[in-house]
């Protein structure tokens, strides 16, 4: 069972604002899924190496040669707050909290 | 009160921007003070759907650094995602090496290296004031030019025990990296950045106290200042019976103070996991050999060579070798003169040169060519110019350049010698002018010779050779 | 003429163009008009004009390999200057400055972009009800789901709104909607197709794949999708050219039926089981041997999948933060609130659920128990397949335990929804290819038959699927013939 406090902590890590109702529902739903998933913890996996890649490739390296960059107006085209040639954001540490 | 002595225990974490042509994971060129956001592409902006591809030269430089520090190279290393939200981190994670870094172990000087790994740099946040908003938070603007620049992170063991030691060791690391040609290693410009983990413990004990992490000490001076301030603070706490809290402290160069970063919100949980977009990195024997072949002579080895082959005292050898530009200049001067210039004599002239051109200046950038310094030292060694006069000549060379022999000639600074006949007469005049001193010297009190020599130097405007003057005084006083 | 054009498979249409019997402009315009009149909500964007000609430097349609046959593309493929939203409101209206490698390759081979198809948001779903732009309807029964997450692509092809389409498969997202819509869907070997330009869901699992009317079309499209891309480190050169299948028997082919997936545990519907068994009978008739095989860890694949995929997704979706593109909810708030509100407003409930699950599985103190364990299960699943392929050419299962279900039927029960993927998740975990072909109808709804083979066995897989397809003789045209503006047939 996932506690409400854990849900709140994870939501903060994931930068998701959840309403009270959402967080409550999330605790129930995730608990149900985790109950099912947790069965794999009963498997004997002693000495089994983890698989993080299924392709048998190493060293896909790129030569250190420049390719063209985007014109700045293209880079900024989708920006919600283009400002002074950059991407505007609330200053970290500024404002409420 | 029983005043316990405390010993600082310091480990350093150094981030080095590599001098590749392009970024770590995309083909954008590295940026040097350009307009914001002119070196970006879909990859380094973290646009949806983009994937990283590792820069081969960054790996090569990483291997060179590892080998130069005597590390063990991992046969197979991998990249992880380090997850956290910050506007300078376009993907919401930094690609970095975690459980298996490229290099481990090794040492530089007396400090052991814990690990050396590859990662990507963050972008830059610039404060953007007055964006015309009526209400709301202060604004910043993100410039992604720097984002994705290849970094090597070097982590030492906690083998450093004073701020000064930390500063000196970082100097050695900087010159080593500079010789390797893998980075500009410029602290002002941020291509070399150093954080310190600081704790203190009762002197003689072997345990480790609670450490704090010091960030943003972006000069050698600030590094020493920051560590000293933190050591003092921690010792103060312990003396007062309080405890050190583990936290991250930010150095403010204006006040020289350390302030805690707010950290309760974050409670760092980076959720590292293997980067699925990159395949494992296998340092093949060919790659390691290529890196080894690219290694030049390193500062520590060069200092040893200066001691062993040129007979320089250890201090002087380090002083030159640990600043590559000084060592290079020194060796060029040594080679400039066909005749056998005494390396020790030449080396002794480097500090006066540095004093005159400014301690941070590369002598190769000055008006004094290695050949002209060699020429000056040769004149001194041949007693054609006195040491005192030679210092004046050096001052002239620094200001205007030119040929030392010509300056000596022009200014009439050539040494007055016994052979000219003039010097013996001036010595005689000195003995006559100060019979007291002459008597004392005659009686064996050599300390009294000072005023006599001083008289001669005044009379000759420093052109007399000190040794020659002493010899003449002793001779005229009948001391043989 | 329009109806006749729509009756042609993509390969037939390409052949007609090559033979000078069909004008590629007319072909495009026919489909463009049908796609624009879409009532299934299969499309999120449709090209507003017929391309004037091939891309610069490329051969004319008549001499290009794909003959100018237009292509429907899942929304999550980036297409330069064209909305690419991954079915999410957080990317509403986003037009990327570049195109995905696979889309570029197909356009260069002569398959121009017809439109962008609806999907479950960020490919998270098995019913297409998780789209930020509304659900897609199944052309066989508009009260039912088309499957997901490539539901728009599947519905468009099944309804004759596109000659062919591409989608992506992470845990079954090409094969399952293909099954539910009565078409062919192939998930290639991991690394066979470049992922560059695919808006990532789970990077170690995602693969692009064709959704087509028949196996031949799948082979033709796949031929021009595969190949190493220097911009995707995990892509590989396909070891041989993809061939168009011609084999009509299955002599010497050994099919393995894993009890762990097909037995009681899988919850396979009766009608689906019947169709599956009939297909096995047909296979025997074509000369194949059919025997039980073991995949001991396959029942745990779903659990491993629902840890690995959300974990990777939690990182992949961190870039949607309102800074560089997409939605932002700001209102003068501080940075952390800007992030949290933007993401809360932009992501739908299923995406939030998976981000939460993935973040939790990676978080301090839980990594080993969850993510680490899942990676070890993954190793065992890949081993199981390797062992099975020592005795069998292919492992076969029903693609989905169920036929298309009613819209809304499983929305309130995430776990029940996840069970859709029971038979399709083991293959991406092992990185191996699998194909779904229609094996018939159950109560008027299509059933899919899945074949999975070893890595890079696509040619053999396509050959076997082709032989079976001919023996089955499934007629997908009822759905296709219907007037796109009209009602259920
Ligand atoms: Mg770092
Ligand atoms: Zn870039």
Give a structural overview.
The complex is a heterotrimer of chains A (97), B (480) and C (489). Chain A is an alpha+beta fold and 97 residues long. In chain A, 33% of the residues lie in helices and 9% in strands. Chain A has a domain at 4-41: Orthogonal Bundle (Histone, subunit A), CATH 1.10.20. In chain A, helix 1 (4-13) packs across helix 2 (20-37). The longest helix of chain A is centred in the first third of the chain and has 18 residues, at 20-37. Chain A starts with a helix and ends in a 7-residue tail after the last strand. In chain B, 38% of the residues lie in helices and 18% in strands. In chain B, strand 15 (248-252) and strand 16 form a beta hairpin. The mean pLDDT of chain B is 90. In chain B, the strands form four sheets. In chain B, strands 1, 3, 7, 8, 9, 12, 13, 14, 15 and 16 form a ten-stranded mixed sheet that branches. A three-stranded antiparallel sheet of chain B has the order 6-5-17, with no helix packed on it. A two-stranded antiparallel ribbon of chain B has the order 4-18. Chain B folds into three domains: 6-293, no CATH class; 299-411; 422-476, Orthogonal Bundle (Arc Repressor Mutant, subunit A), CATH 1.10.10. In chain B, helix 2 (163-180) runs antiparallel to helix 3 (220-239) and helix 5 (299-310) packs across helix 6. Chain C folds into two domains: 2-253 and 391-486, Amidase signature (AS) enzymes; 299-375, no CATH class. Helix content of chain C is 36%, strand content 12%. Chain C has an eleven-stranded mixed sheet with strand order 1-3-2-4-6-5-10-11-9-7-8, with helices on both faces. In chain C, strand 2 (71-74), helix 4 (101-108) and strand 3 form a beta-alpha-beta unit. Chains in contact: A-B, A-C, B-C. Chains A and B meet through strand 1 and strand 3 of A and strand 2, helix 1, strand 10, strand 11 and strand 17 of B. Bound molecules: magnesium ion and zinc ion (ZN). Zinc ion binds at residues 23, 26, 28, 40-41, 43-44, 148 of chain B. Residues 15, 96, 119, 153 of chain B line the site of magnesium ion.
């Amino acid at each position: 069972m996932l506690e409400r406090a854990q849900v709140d902590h994870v939501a903060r890590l994931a930068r998701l604002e959840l309403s009270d109702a959402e967080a409550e529902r999330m605790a129930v739903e995730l608990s149900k899924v985790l109950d099912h998933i947790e069965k794999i913890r009963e498997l004997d996996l002693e000495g089994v190496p983890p698989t993080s890649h299924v392709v048998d490739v190493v060293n896909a390296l790129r030569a250190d040669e420049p390719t063209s960059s985007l014109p700045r107006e293209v880079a900024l085209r989708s920006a919600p707050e283009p400002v002074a040639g950059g991407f505007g954001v609330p200053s970290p540490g500024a404002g409420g909290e | 009160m029983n005043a316990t002595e405390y010993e600082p225990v310091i480990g350093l974490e150094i981030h080095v921007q590599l001098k590749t042509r392009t970024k770590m994971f995309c083909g954008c060129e590295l940026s040097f003070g350009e307009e914001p956001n002119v070196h970006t592409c879909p990859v380094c902006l973290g646009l949806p759907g983009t994937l990283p591809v590792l820069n081969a030269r960054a790996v090569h430089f990483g291997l060179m650094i590892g080998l130069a520090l005597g590390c063990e190279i991992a046969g197979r290393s991998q990249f992880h995602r380090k997850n956290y939200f910050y506007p300078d981190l376009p993907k919401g994670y930094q690609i970095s090496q975690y459980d298996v870094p490229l290099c481990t172990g090794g040492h530089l000087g007396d400090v052991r290296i814990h690990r050396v790994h590859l990662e990507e740099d963050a972008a830059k946040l610039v404060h953007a004031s007055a964006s015309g908003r009526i209400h709301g938070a202060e604004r910043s603007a993100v410039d992604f030019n720097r984002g994705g620049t290849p970094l090597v992170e070097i982590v030492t063991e906690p083998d450093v025990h004073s701020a000064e030691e930390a500063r000196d060791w970082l100097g050695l690391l900087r010159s080593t990296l500079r010789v390797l040609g893998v980075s500009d290693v410029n602290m002002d410009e941020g291509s070399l950045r150093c954080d310190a983990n600081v704790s203190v413990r009762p002197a003689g004990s072997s345990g480790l106290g609670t450490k704090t992490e010091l960030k943003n000490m972006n000069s050698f001076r600030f590094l020493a200042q920051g560590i000293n301030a933190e050591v003092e603070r921690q010792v103060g706490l312990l003396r007062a019976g309080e405890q050190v809290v583990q936290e991250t402290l930010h150095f403010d160069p204006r006040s020289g103070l350390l302030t805690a970063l707010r950290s309760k919100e974050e409670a760092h949980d980076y959720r590292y996991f293997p980067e699925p977009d990159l395949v494992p990195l296998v340092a093949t024997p060919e790659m390691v050999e290529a890196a080894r072949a690219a290694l030049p002579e390193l500062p520590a080895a060069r200092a040893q060579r200066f001691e062993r082959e040129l007979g320089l005292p250890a201090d002087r050898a380090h002083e030159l070798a640990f600043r590559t530009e000084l060592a290079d200049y020194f060796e060029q001067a040594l080679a400039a003169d066909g005749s056998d210039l005494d390396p020790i004599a030449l080396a002794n002239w480097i500090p006066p040169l540095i004093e005159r051109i400014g301690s941070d200046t590369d002598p190769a950038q000055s008006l004094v060519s290695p050949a002209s310094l060699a020429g000056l030292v040769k004149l001194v060694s041949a007693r054609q110019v006195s040491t005192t006069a030679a210092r004046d000549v050096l001052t002239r060379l620094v200001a205007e350049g030119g040929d030392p022999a010509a300056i000596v000639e022009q200014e009439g600074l050539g040494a007055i010698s016994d052979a000219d006949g003039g010097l013996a007469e001036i010595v005689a005049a000195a003995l006559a002018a100060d019979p007291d001193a002459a008597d004392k010297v005659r009686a064996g009190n050599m300390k009294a010779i000072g005023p006599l020599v001083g008289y001669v130097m005044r009379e000759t405007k420093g052109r007399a050779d000190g040794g020659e003057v002493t010899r003449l005084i002793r001779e005229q006083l009948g001391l043989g | 003429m329009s109806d006749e054009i729509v009756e042609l498979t993509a390969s037939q249409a390409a052949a007609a163009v090559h033979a000078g019997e069909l004008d590629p402009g007319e072909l495009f315009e026919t489909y463009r008009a049908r796609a624009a009149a879409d009532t299934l909500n299969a499309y999120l964007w449709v090209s507003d004009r017929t391309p004037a000609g091939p891309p610069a430097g490329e051969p004319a349609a008549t001499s290009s390999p794909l003959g100018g046959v237009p292509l429907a593309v899942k929304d999550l493929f980036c297409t330069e200057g064209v909305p690419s939203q991954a079915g999410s409101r957080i990317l509403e209206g986003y037009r990327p400055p570049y195109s995905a490698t696979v889309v570029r390759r197909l356009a260069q081979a002569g398959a121009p972009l017809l439109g962008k198809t609806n999907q479950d948001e960020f490919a998270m779903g098995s019913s297409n009800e998780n789209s930020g732009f509304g659900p897609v309807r199944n052309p066989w029964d508009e009260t039912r789901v088309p499957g997901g997450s490539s539901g728009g692509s599947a519905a468009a092809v099944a309804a004759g709104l596109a000659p062919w389409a591409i989608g992506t498969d992470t845990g079954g997202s090409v094969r399952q909607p293909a099954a539910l819509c009565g078409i062919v869907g192939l998930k290639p070997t991991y690394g066979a197709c470049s992922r560059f330009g695919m808006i990532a869901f789970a990077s170690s699992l995602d693969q692009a794949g064709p959704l087509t009317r028949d196996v031949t079309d799948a082979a033709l499209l796949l031929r021009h999708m595969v190949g190493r891309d220097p911009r995707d480190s995990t892509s590989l050169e396909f070891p041989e050219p993809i061939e168009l299948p011609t084999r009509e028997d299955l002599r010497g082919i050994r099919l393995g039926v894993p009890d762990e997936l097909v037995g009681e545990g899988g919850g396979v519907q009766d009608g689906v089981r019947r169709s599956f068994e009939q297909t096995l009978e047909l296979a025997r008739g074509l000369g194949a041997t059919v025997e039980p095989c073991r995949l001991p860890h396959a029942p745990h694949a779903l659990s491993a999948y629902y840890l690995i995929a959300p974990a990777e997704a939690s990182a992949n979706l961190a870039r949607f933060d309102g800074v560089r593109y997409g939605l932002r909810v700001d209102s003068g708030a501080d940075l952390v609130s800007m992030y949290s509100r933007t993401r809360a407003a932009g992501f739908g409930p299923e995406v939030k659920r998976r981000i939460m699950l993935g973040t939790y599985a990676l978080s301090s103190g839980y990594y080993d128990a969850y993510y680490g364990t899942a990676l070890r299960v993954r190793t065992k699943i890949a081993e199981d397949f390797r062992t099975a392929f020592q005795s069998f050419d292919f492992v076969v299962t029903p693609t989905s335990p169920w036929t298309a279900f009613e819209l809304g039927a499983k929305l309130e029960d995430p776990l029940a929804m996840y069970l859709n993927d029971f038979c399709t998740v083991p293959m991406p975990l092992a990185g191996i290819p699998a194909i779904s072909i229609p094996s018939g109808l159950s109560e008027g709804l299509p059933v899919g038959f899945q074949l999975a083979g070893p890595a890079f066995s696509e040619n053999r897989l396509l050959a076997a699927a082709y032989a079976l397809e001919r023996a089955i003789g499934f007629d997908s045209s009822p759905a296709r013939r219907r007037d796109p503006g009209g009602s259920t047939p």
